[in-house]
């Protein structure tokens, strides 16, 4: 297949250009988590170099077809063109079709978590974790440290009268409220997310939810908080809203869960960064 | 003569493709979009692109390491480094991941190259199973995802080690030194390169990118279909039984084809639906075997070998998990 070196070079270039465009337009954020970006820069650069090399190599008439490492099985032209079609398709669909942001249809298939990151308290774990990785901390950067420290956040939230969810504290705040629900009942809350309803929900009930992503959208999970109020009547699924209200306690499927009694609700545009990225490595 | 005509045709199409890519890159405005897909297929497209974008850097790393081994490490060197006793080699290779944290996308080209260079297949497969789990990055992400159940992270490491060594030993008993790789006609002779070794490494890498990449792309496409259309809620409801649920989560891990670094987070989102054993089954089975890399295995290894490997791995994981559930 050495006669296809030029084609291979073009395909590699296509991948590099596709990645470059995603990175420049920022759309990459809707496909993979920011922590993967260095790897993507590496891939883009490498593909670009490989592609130039292939194109250059294809012009080299003295090139001997063989390098003996079984990449070069003889295939019929039809078979080998199928292989290239497989590579061309993602570049084309990637450049032509815009990304579909995950919505409530996906949430319905994956299920919504209403209790934060797998529930339970973890106050002493951070210390343990630091001990465990004490000497390795330089090699294994624990991004969590750049984010909100959970213990500090817990103290701050318990002390204040109003809980404001942000991109940075989203998961931690959900977990803290769920675990200390008795301390949070009656407090004000402000939360941004999209509206999602389970099939058995009435119109006045919904989950204000966000997708949380670890590496790429394939591993997205949905985390959110129950909300209720007449104001929800006019809001359909997948609409983005900023909700303010009071935290109440509610019973849902046998679990005690926090629930927002809505005071005010604003429809907003879907944010440029619709996803939350979890703070693990 | 025929050859040259087909070359001209090839070059012509390649050139057209190049123009098309450049046009789309520079002039096609993503926002004033004229073509749209039906929503579900747009979702499949998004999942698909996301999976391959995440995998490509690691495939490239795997391909480079493999090409590096091909060019720079000789059979003799490998022979000298390998312990004489295969069982010791199996146990040691299970720890290799701590030094070389390679994920499941990158590992297959590397292991295939190592086996080709004379590493006993059972040792190579042990490395293939353990490296994506037994490494510091995966330990940390598992620990983070299961903060209040930190035994999960430790159990994941311990059981993964056990499974890798057990399956490795069984493969050794069954296949000994038989070559499990497919033999291809052109692979018989070692080539002599007159060019410098670095250039050779790059050439190998880009050839292998296409070689490996096609299976990854097909696998990623299948996984994105599952990601979009499979209703997890329905599945989660079947499986709370201690005997059945590990099977369900293993099947889950297989079809979802998640990265070993990200799967703990997904497992955490299962909440309390599944027992600890079932969650561990998910966390151990997925990185060792999934839809995304099954095709790659079939492409490189003999069918009989791959099927035996899959069966043995499935049984061993299941029984190890049952044992864990009984003991803890």
Automatic annotation (TrEMBL), chain A:
<feature type="transmembrane region" description="Helical">
    <location>
        <begin position="82"/>
        <end position="102"/>
    </location>
</feature>
<dbReference type="InterPro" id="IPR048447">
    <property type="entry name" value="DUF1980_C"/>
</dbReference>
<keyword id="KW-0812">Transmembrane</keyword>
<feature type="transmembrane region" description="Helical">
    <location>
        <begin position="36"/>
        <end position="56"/>
    </location>
</feature>
<feature type="domain" description="DUF1980">
    <location>
        <begin position="7"/>
        <end position="113"/>
    </location>
</feature>
<feature type="transmembrane region" description="Helical">
    <location>
        <begin position="6"/>
        <end position="24"/>
    </location>
</feature>
<dbReference type="Pfam" id="PF09323">
    <property type="entry name" value="DUF1980"/>
</dbReference>
<feature type="domain" description="DUF1980">
    <location>
        <begin position="147"/>
        <end position="277"/>
    </location>
</feature>
<dbReference type="InterPro" id="IPR052955">
    <property type="entry name" value="UPF0703_membrane_permease"/>
</dbReference>
<dbReference type="InterPro" id="IPR048493">
    <property type="entry name" value="DUF1980_N"/>
</dbReference>
<dbReference type="InterPro" id="IPR015402">
    <property type="entry name" value="DUF1980"/>
</dbReference>
<protein>
    <submittedName>
        <fullName>Putative repeat protein (TIGR03943 family)</fullName>
    </submittedName>
</protein>
<keyword id="KW-0472">Membrane</keyword>
<dbReference type="Pfam" id="PF21537">
    <property type="entry name" value="DUF1980_C"/>
</dbReference>
<keyword id="KW-1133">Transmembrane helix</keyword>
From TrEMBL, chain B:
<dbReference type="InterPro" id="IPR052923">
    <property type="entry name" value="UPF0718"/>
</dbReference>
<feature type="transmembrane region" description="Helical">
    <location>
        <begin position="123"/>
        <end position="146"/>
    </location>
</feature>
<keyword id="KW-1003">Cell membrane</keyword>
<dbReference type="GO" id="GO:0005886">
    <property type="term" value="C:plasma membrane"/>
</dbReference>
<feature type="transmembrane region" description="Helical">
    <location>
        <begin position="305"/>
        <end position="327"/>
    </location>
</feature>
<keyword id="KW-0472">Membrane</keyword>
<dbReference type="InterPro" id="IPR005524">
    <property type="entry name" value="DUF318"/>
</dbReference>
<feature type="transmembrane region" description="Helical">
    <location>
        <begin position="153"/>
        <end position="175"/>
    </location>
</feature>
<dbReference type="Pfam" id="PF03773">
    <property type="entry name" value="ArsP_1"/>
</dbReference>
<feature type="transmembrane region" description="Helical">
    <location>
        <begin position="85"/>
        <end position="111"/>
    </location>
</feature>
<comment type="similarity">
    <text>Belongs to the UPF0718 family.</text>
</comment>
<keyword id="KW-0812">Transmembrane</keyword>
<feature type="transmembrane region" description="Helical">
    <location>
        <begin position="12"/>
        <end position="28"/>
    </location>
</feature>
<protein>
    <recommendedName>
        <fullName>Permease</fullName>
    </recommendedName>
</protein>
<feature type="transmembrane region" description="Helical">
    <location>
        <begin position="48"/>
        <end position="73"/>
    </location>
</feature>
<feature type="transmembrane region" description="Helical">
    <location>
        <begin position="264"/>
        <end position="285"/>
    </location>
</feature>
<keyword id="KW-1133">Transmembrane helix</keyword>
């Amino acid at each position: 297949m050495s006669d296809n070196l030029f084609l291979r070079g073009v395909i590699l270039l296509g991948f590099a250009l596709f990645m470059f465009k995603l990175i420049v337009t920022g759309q990459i954020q809707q496909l993979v988590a920011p922590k993967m970006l260095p790897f993507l820069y590496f891939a883009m650069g490498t593909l670009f170099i490989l592609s130039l090399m292939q194109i250059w190599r294809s012009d080299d008439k003295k090139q001997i077809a063989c390098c003996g490492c079984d990449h070069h099985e003889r295939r019929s032209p039809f078979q080998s063109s199928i292989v290239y079609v497989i590579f061309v398709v993602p570049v084309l669909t990637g450049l032509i079709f815009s990304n579909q942001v995950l919505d409530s249809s996906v949430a319905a298939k994956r299920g919504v978590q209403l209790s934060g990151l797998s529930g339970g308290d973890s106050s002493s774990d951070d210390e343990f974790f630091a001990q465990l990785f004490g000497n390795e901390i330089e090699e294994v950067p624990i991004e969590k440290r750049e984010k909100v420290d959970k213990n500090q956040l817990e103290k701050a939230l318990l002390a204040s009268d109003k809980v404001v969810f942000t991109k940075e504290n989203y998961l931690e705040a959900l977990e803290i409220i769920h675990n200390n629900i008795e301390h949070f009942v009656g407090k004000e809350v402000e939360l941004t997310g999209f509206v999602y309803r389970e099939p058995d929900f009435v119109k006045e009930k919904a989950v204000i939810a966000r997708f949380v992503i670890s590496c790429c959208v394939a591993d997205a999970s949905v985390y959110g908080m129950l909300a209720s109020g007449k104001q929800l009547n006019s809001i359909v699924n997948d609409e983005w809203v900023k909700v303010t209200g009071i935290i109440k306690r509610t019973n849902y499927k046998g679990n005690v869960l926090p629930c927002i009694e809505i005071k005010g609700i604003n429809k907003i545009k879907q944010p440029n960064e619709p996803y939350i990225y979890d703070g693990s490595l | 003569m025929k050859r040259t005509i087909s070359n001209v045709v090839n070059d012509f199409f390649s050139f057209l493709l190049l123009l098309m890519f450049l046009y789309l890159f520079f002039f096609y405005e993503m926002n004033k979009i004229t073509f749209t897909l039906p929503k579900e297929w747009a979702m499949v497209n998004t999942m698909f692109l996301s999976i391959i974008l995440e995998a490509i850097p690691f495939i490239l790393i795997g391909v480079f390491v493999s090409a590096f081994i091909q060019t720079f490490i000789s059979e003799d060197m490998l022979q000298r480094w390998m312990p004489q006793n295969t069982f010791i080699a199996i146990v040691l290779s299970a720890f290799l991941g701590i030094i070389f944290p390679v994920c499941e996308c990158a590992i297959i080209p590397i292991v295939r190259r190592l086996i080709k260079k004379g590493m006993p297949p059972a040792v190579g497969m042990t490395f293939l199973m353990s490296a994506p789990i037994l490494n510091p990055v995966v330990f940390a992400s598992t620990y983070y995802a299961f903060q209040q159940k930190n035994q999960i992270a430790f159990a994941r490491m311990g059981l993964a080690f056990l499974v890798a060594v057990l399956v490795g030993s069984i493969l050794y008993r069954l296949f000994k030194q038989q070559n499990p790789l497919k033999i291809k006609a052109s692979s018989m002779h070692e080539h002599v390169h007159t060019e410098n070794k670095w250039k050779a490494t790059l050439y190998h890498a880009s050839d292998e990118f296409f070689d490996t990449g096609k299976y990854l792309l097909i696998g990623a496409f299948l996984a994105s279909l599952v990601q979009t259309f499979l209703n997890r809620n329905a599945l989660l409801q079947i499986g709370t039984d201690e005997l059945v649920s590990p099977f369900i989560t293993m099947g889950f891990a297989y079809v979802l084809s998640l990265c070993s670094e990200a799967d703990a987070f997904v497992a955490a989102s299962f909440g309390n639906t599944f027992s600890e054993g079932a969650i561990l089954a998910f966390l151990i089975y997925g990185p060792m075997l999934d839809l995304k890399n099954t095709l790659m295995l079939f492409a490189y290894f003999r069918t009989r070998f791959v099927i035996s490997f899959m069966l043995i791995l499935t049984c061993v994981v299941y029984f190890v998990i049952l044992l864990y559930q009984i003991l803890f």
